């Protein structure tokens, strides 16, 4: 199993590199960064950059703050359950395989393995049946499967069959579940190029770069509008209060006023 885990790690690394080459993500980030530096209106110090990096890690990575808007509470909880379940599950798997091959010496790690798998399954199934856009907003049946679902389905297969294997371990059906567990894991880690797995590496980088462009004023080549509540800005653009109200940053519920379920 140690060889298998190492192979999965290599598949993730290789798949991520191929994804970067195929989508030219690294080239995009590099060119965008250079363009932002050229168009910067302000200088961002090293301390500010570190602070923005910490904000990105705490906000976008650790707490999924991108789902903090009204109406996205369930999506955020589901995402956090899935993310932390996956991290704990994978970490516990690695520790058990490489450091505690016998259950007697494993300590708390088997419990963490099960809790991680359970959290992953709860968050994943919650997303699959109730939160997916094509199900919750577009009215498609939950069993409709497209290639974009490869990531979540292999993730769910890994967690589900892993738990079932643990329950029926030592029996004939237990070996069947073990085979399906390995199959789900292999699909998850071996299809990085075609799934959203590599997305978890690019998303924080994109969020950090956006914070940098906002801090240095380059704004990704968009106008640096400034504070919409500033009287001087409103005097320059008198239609701001007319179209956006007296408190532009808080115009109201907008598109979050009701769920998009008009199919």
UniProtKB/TrEMBL annotation:
Keyword terms, alphabetized: Membrane, Transmembrane, Transmembrane helix
Name of the featured protein: Adenylyl-sulfate reductase
Transmembrane helix recorded as keyword: yes
Transmembrane segments: 6-22, 80-99, 111-130, 150-168, 174-194
UniProt entry tagged with the keyword S-adenosyl-L-methionine: no
Source species taxonomy: Bacteria, Pseudomonadati, Pseudomonadota, Gammaproteobacteria, Chromatiales
Native source organism of the sequence: Thioalkalivibrio denitrificans
């Amino acid at each position: 199993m140690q060889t298998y885990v190492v192979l999965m790690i290599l598949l993730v690394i290789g798949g991520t590199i191929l994804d970067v080459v195929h989508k030219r993500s690294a080239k995009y980030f590099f060119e965008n960064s250079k363009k932002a530096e050229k168009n910067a209106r302000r200088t961002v110090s090293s301390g500010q950059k570190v602070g923005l990096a910490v904000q990105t890690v705490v906000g976008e990575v650790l707490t999924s703050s991108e789902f903090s808007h009204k109406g996205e509470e369930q999506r955020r909880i589901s995402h956090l359950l899935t993310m932390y379940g996956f991290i704990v599950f994978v970490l516990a798997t690695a520790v058990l395989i490489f450091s505690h091959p016998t259950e007697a010496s494993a300590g708390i790690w088997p419990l963490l393995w099960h809790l991680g798998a359970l959290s992953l399954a709860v968050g994943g199934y919650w997303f699959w049946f109730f939160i997916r856009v094509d199900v919750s907003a577009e009215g498609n049946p939950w069993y409709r499967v497209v290639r974009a679902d490869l990531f979540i389905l292999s993730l769910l297969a890994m967690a589900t069959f892993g738990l079932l294997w643990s329950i029926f371990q030592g029996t004939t059906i237990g070996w069947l579940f073990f085979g399906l567990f390995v199959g789900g894991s292999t699909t998850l880690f071996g299809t990085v190029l075609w799934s959203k797995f590599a997305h978890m590496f690019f998303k924080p980088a994109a969020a950090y770069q956006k914070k940098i462009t906002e801090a240095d004023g380059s704004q990704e080549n968009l106008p640096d509008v400034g504070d919409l509540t500033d009287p001087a800005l409103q005097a320059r653009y008198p239609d701001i209060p007319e179209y956006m109200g007296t408190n532009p940053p808080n115009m109201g519920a907008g598109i979050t006023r009701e769920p998009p379920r008009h199919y």
